[in-house]
């Protein structure tokens, strides 16, 4: 049974159980929350690992905390593939996220934007290799949420324009250290390009929709909360950030833009989602 078939079978059984006990609107809301949680399973497990490792890890243990996090991420990724929680196509997207995310981490750490204060054996130019999996978890969520909700994006802008915008966003993450920061222009560009695009998603037999820029904003807020978990556990620390100080709200803009890079990357292997939405029934 494929990952998609497994998800649909579970959804049907769970939906039948809830419909016998709850109102239709409650069932829809609960199913939405559960499917969102299932989609971000990889990221949720990584955040749990950050919290638990911070609580219990001892400096004199033979394995560094960052290296243990890398081992945990590798085992989790392997388990996702073994139990068919992700497809091979989704794994390829996640690998691309890992590579591009690690490249950005190396640059940002070298530029002094943030740092990883603990020692580790598996570190590249000051960046622990597990950090790439934090970006990969965003890719995992993107790929899984599209599949789990049978998402369609319509009307979709020209493919070349979306890739040009994603490239401009990614380049700006590096270039703003040397040139004027264009993030606000890029945010405006995302709204203009995707203003008409609706995310159509399915919960059981019903289709719903949400404007894509609004969905990106909600997702950016969730990522901002997740980033605070990273900094409050001192897994990484921004320059000048004091203990228990939250991440600046300005980072919402960065996450909002990064989500468009993530989304466009996912469309490399999930082109079917860009088709016109299905009719009900």
Summarize the structure.
With 281 residues, this protein is mainly alpha-helical. The chain is built from ten helices and seven strands.
Fold and architecture overview:
The strands form three sheets. The protein has a three-stranded antiparallel sheet with strand order 4-5-6. Strands 1-7 form a two-stranded antiparallel ribbon. It has helices at residues 3-19, 24-39, 41-56, 65-82, 88-110, 131-148, 159-175, 183-194, 212-232, 251-266; strands at residues 114-115, 123-124, 127-128, 152-154, 198-203, 206-211, 237-238. With 281 residues, it is mainly alpha-helical. Helix content is 62%, strand content 8%. It has ten helices and seven strands. 32% of the residues are buried. Helix 7 (159-175) runs antiparallel to helix 8 (183-194). It has one domain.
């Amino acid at each position: 049974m494929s990952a998609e078939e497994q998800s649909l079978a579970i959804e049907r059984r769970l939906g039948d159980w809830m419909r016998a006990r709850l109102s239709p609107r409650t069932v829809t809301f609960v199913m939405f929350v559960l499917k969102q949680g299932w989609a971000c399973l990889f990221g949720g497990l990584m955040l749990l690992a950050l919290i638990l490792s911070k609580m219990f890890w001892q400096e004199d243990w033979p394995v560094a905390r960052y290296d243990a996090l890398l081992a945990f991420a590798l085992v989790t990724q392997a388990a996702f593939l073994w139990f068919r929680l992700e497809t091979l196509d989704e794994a390829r997207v996640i690998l691309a996220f890992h590579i591009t995310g690690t490249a950005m981490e190396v640059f940002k750490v070298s530029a002094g934007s943030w740092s990883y204060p603990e020692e580790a054996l598996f570190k590249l130019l000051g960046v622990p290799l597990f950090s790439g999996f934090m970006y990969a978890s965003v890719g995992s969520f993107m790929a899984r949420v599209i599949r789990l909700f049978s998402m369609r994006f319509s009307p979709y802008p020209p493919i070349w324009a979306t890739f040009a915008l994603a490239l401009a966003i990614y380049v700006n993450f590096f270039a703003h250290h040397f040139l004027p920061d264009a993030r606000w222009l890029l945010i405006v560009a995302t709204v203009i390009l995707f203003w008409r695009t609706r995310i159509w998603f399915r919960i059981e037999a019903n289709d719903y929709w949400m404007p894509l820029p609004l969905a990106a904003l909600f997702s950016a807020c969730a990522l901002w909360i997740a980033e605070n978990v990273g900094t409050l556990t001192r897994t990484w620390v921004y320059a000048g950030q004091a203990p228990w100080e939250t991440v600046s709200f300005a980072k919402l803009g960065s996450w909002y833009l990064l989500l468009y890079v993530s989304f466009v990357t996912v469309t490399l292997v999930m082109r079917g989602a860009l088709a016109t939405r299905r009719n009900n029934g």
